[in-house]
Amino acid sequence: MRKQHSRFTYWLETLVIRLRDLLRPPSGVLLECGIKPGMTVLDFGCGPDGFSVAAATLVGTTGRVYAVDIQPGALRIVRCAAARRGLANLQAIAAGEIGRLPAASVDMALLYDVLHIQPEASQTGRMLETVHRLLKPAGVLSVRDHHILEARLKAMVTGGGLFRLLEAGSSGLQFEKVETSEESA
Question: What Å distances lie between residue 122 and 28, 128, 130, 176, CA to CA?
């Protein structure tokens, strides 16, 4: 993932995200992409709580949300928001700890405004490999990144052969997990 920001840079980023969430509430986006009660959701590069908290509310007490970020400030904000709202199903995880999550345990992974900050294609590839490992066989990867043109975004996600485009809509791009030869063996 990306490197950590200074406090000021992170404060500015948080302000922009809060404005975005006011203009297009995260719960509406997540409903459009198919989040339902009981699902397990991975918000990879969660930032300061917008989608993670909304997802935890939507999946309900029978679901679970893993909010993952490299920024300690983001994880603090998510933990505080979860505690304030009584969301015991929301777990904030440092990016370095994501390997501890069980394989094939996630119904939907969110990569929202994350891919544009990966400085190297190899980092994007490793991130997509991690998401692929964590998704259940019928799992869905939901991707949004307003910094990247849609055609390039599709190519970035499908280029490694791990995902196939399911749907392109107003809430973003939805990809299905492609079974690899290692999984079918």
Answer: 32, 10, 12, 21
